[in-house]
Amino acid sequence: xxxxxxxxxxxxxxxxxxxxxxxxxxxxxxxxxxxxxxxxxxxxxxxxxxxxxxxxxxxxxxxxxxxxxxxxxxxxxxxxxxxx
Length: 84
Description:
It is found in: Cytoplasm, Cytosol; Nucleus membrane. It holds the Pfam family GFRP. GO terms for molecular function: GTP cyclohydrolase binding. One of its GO terms (biological process) is negative regulation of biosynthetic process. InterPro entries: GFRP_sf (IPR036717), GTP_CycHdrlase_I_reg (IPR009112). By secondary structure, the chain is of the alpha+beta class. It has a single domain, classed as GTP cyclohydrolase I feedback regulatory protein GFRP (Gtp Cyclohydrolase I Feedback Regulatory Protein, Chain: K, 2-Layer Sandwich). 20% of the residues lie in helices and 43% in strands. The protein has two helices and six strands, in the order ββαββαββ. The chain has a three-stranded antiparallel beta sheet with strand order 1-6-5, covered by helices on one side. A three-stranded antiparallel beta sheet has the order 2-4-3. A hairpin with an 8-residue loop joins strand 3 (35-37) and strand 4. The radius of gyration is 12 Å and the shape is globular. It starts with a strand and ends with a strand.
């Protein structure tokens, strides 16, 4: 299903924003300006944008995604979006 999860640390609401895992659509990630990175100590890769979450949410809206939910966990904000 075409879901995407984006996250940002609350103390870093100006970015960076993480916009997917290593299996996310590379064409969409390019449109978002994301780069695939692997943080030291992690056994997975993730896509990272330097822009704030608001800009990424606007870009995803243009791509046809709608917000399903948002929440905060610890010091992290999380948004889940879906594209029909």
